[in-house]
């Protein structure tokens, strides 16, 4: 089985930066699509970013495009989310997810097989 663990969340001032990490177990990591989702206060969980197994294809939600960057280091079994120019509306619990089957519908929660416990990001206004 695959287990995921997020880290790097915290409190940051608007305009600041944070880098989230997702550490994964299992040899299937390198061939899996990896995504980041988030859930803000009183909101539904939403898609943030995704990266294919090769690392050569990434997609971002319009709300974070140009500010966030997703990357992966397969040798370290780790996926990153670099977040710059943070805004108060970015405040949320951020979740890392793995899609072993590499579904086409990468924006949908049900496409992912494994989830981390989440890491909280709070951006002060």
Structure description:
With about 120 residues, the protein is mainly β. The protein has no helices and 11 strands. The protein has strands at about 5, 10-15, 20-25, 35-40, 45-50, 60, 70-75, 80-85, 90-100, 115, 120-125. The strands form 2 sheets. Strands 2, 4, 5, 6, 9, 10 and 11 form a 7-stranded mixed β-sheet that branches. A hairpin with a 6-residue loop joins strand 5 and strand 6 (about 60).
Tell me the span between the first and last alpha carbons.
40 Å
Helices, by number, come to 0
Structural class: mainly beta
Helix proportion range? under 10%
**Chain-averaged pLDDT:** 93
Map the helices and strands.
Elements: E1 4-7, E2 10-13, E3 18-24, E4 33-39, E5 46-51, E6 58-60, E7 68-73, E8 78-83, E9 92-99, E10 114-115, E11 119-124
Parallel strand pairs: 2-11
Antiparallel strand pairs: 1-3, 3-8, 4-5, 4-9, 5-6, 7-8, 9-10, 9-11
Question: What's this entry about, in short?
Answer:
This protein is 0% helix and 47% strand.
Keyword list:
125 residues; mainly beta; four-stranded antiparallel sheet; 0% helix
